[in-house]
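Dissemination and training. As part of the outreach component of the grant, students in the summer workshop were shown how a complex can be specified as a set of sequence lines and then modelled as a single object. The example used during the hands-on session is reproduced here so that future cohorts can follow it. Participants entered these lines:
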Amino acid sequence: MENKPQITRSAAGASADSLLDVDQTYREQAAYYGRFLWRDKSGIIGLIMFLTVVFAAVFAPWIAPYDPLEQNLRESKVPPVWQAEGSWDHILGTDNLGRDIFSRLIYGARVSLTVAFFGVLIAASLGLIIGSIAGYMGGRIDSVIMNFINLILSLPYLLFVVFIAAILGRSLINVILIFGITDSPIFARVTRGEVLRMRQSGYVESAISAGARWPRIIFDHITPNLIGPLITLATFEMSAMIFYEAGLGFLGLSVPPSVPSWGNMLAAGRKYLQCCPWIAGAPGLAIMFTSMGMNLLGDWLRDVLDPRLRRSRK
Amino acid sequence: MQRYFLSKLGQSILLLFGVLLLVFAMVRVTGDPATLMMSRQASPEDMEEFRERMGFNDPLLVQFGRFMSGAIVGDFGNSLHFKTPAMPMVLDRLPATLQLAFTALVFAVVIGVPLGLIGGFNPGSYIDNIARGLALLGQSVPNFWLALIMILYFAVELRWFPSFGRDEWKSVVMPAFVLGLPVMGQIVRMARSSVLEIRGEDYIRTARSKGLERRTIYTKHVFRNVAIPLVSVIGVQFGYMLGGSIYIEAIFAWPGMGQLLEQSIGWRDFPLVQALAVFTAVVVLALNLLTDMTYAFIDPRIRYGK
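and obtained this result:
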């Protein structure tokens, strides 16, 4: 990702891509992206999948037919509706404590998206600060920061996340903090690459020679051009965090066991794999659905926001 | 070349120092390592005795000095669960993890590289669509979940493979497949996008216009440049597999370092966890050095650069 120059709005005047002209209004731009989305069907599918999960998470209390925590031991281990003993009362069946799996899935989306959203928010903010400092200062500071970041990224990530999570204990805040901090080097690396490239580009140079001070250069010229690559990265990282959160939950190291999260559901279902595979099956499919949607969306965003890649795809 | 290697080596040693510091500090970050490691039922007298025995009552600097001087010779103290030195136990588990990660890597490379290359040379073809679909699947399927499903199907129902352990050659098939799948996805994507990118470069056009044979263009110009990002992905992914096989080893009861990590966290056996974390970091750092060397070997720009 690092060595692909971005031709974004302000730089587009110099490029041959006449569709992205400097004088274009935002509305025209939006219409253009819309057309592009329509042409790339996998992007649309990804967007729909992602929005479905967001919708489920936001409106969970209205969609879920049952309280996700309500136990009913008389109706435990009911199979999903398409099996012989299943019923429409519990579309996806119930778990070992008689809790409705469909309702728990919907509430689980809240946990996953909360972790992913705030985790990425923290990671992106930290990465933006560190990366801009490295990219803008250059020289020795830059090489020290970057060497360090590349080395951190080379460490076995999961092992240290598990290690830290085991010590800090199970809570939502801890999970968000762990992911937010450990994921920030990736954002720092991308930010730094973009800042470095922009510093050498004509428009920043001309802004400097026109007498613009650094706050103006950073906020007016550099930040708007960072948004594209960072949004793309954020999409992929959110998908990765949903994965990792579920993985931690699976090991019993994520949110407390009482919280209906996909990882906790998987961990619980693992014990009943042989008798009732649907308990572990449902959350796995939910993770897969979300992750696939976000990956498709991320691919699409990358294509749209990086015109150079777009051309090479044809 | 020598300077390049030495600077990389120096950086790795510095980072290792950072890892040791982190591993030392994390155990103490909650304030009292004794409550972290002892069971909740432990009496205050037992706690105090434990603190004294582990040296947690000494000044932090003394503790750190003791930790570091032990770490240099690979001594991380005794495992709390087994009451024997932690490091030899970690080393015992290394072959199993290496075997698993290596098999998974071979699977990922043998399937992923050709698929990615073919896809990159023929974008839009049906092989390309298969490759992209597989890559997406590999990245979207949670592999710990896939492991459960495979056990249910191939071990319990069909009885093709054993569901756990490491007793026969068939044991490695399922865990390696599950562990290698996301890596395969990564490799396909990387190979495909690099071929696409390099195909559009000016030097390929030049090579074509001066009448070079297709085969020569591929082997001399394309493959060589695709190899650079690929080697780096493979190196990084191998490192991830060594440290990230926790779920897979736990699910398949594969007697490697990942399973030991899962167990030792359950036992709150933090000396063992520390030894595992540091040792895995050492292995991965060594692996990265090796990747960097391969890099320099393939890419003359690195070899002759500063």
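Residues 90-269 of chain B form a domain with the MetI-like fold fold (CATH 1.10.3720.10). Students were then asked to discuss how this feature might be tested experimentally.
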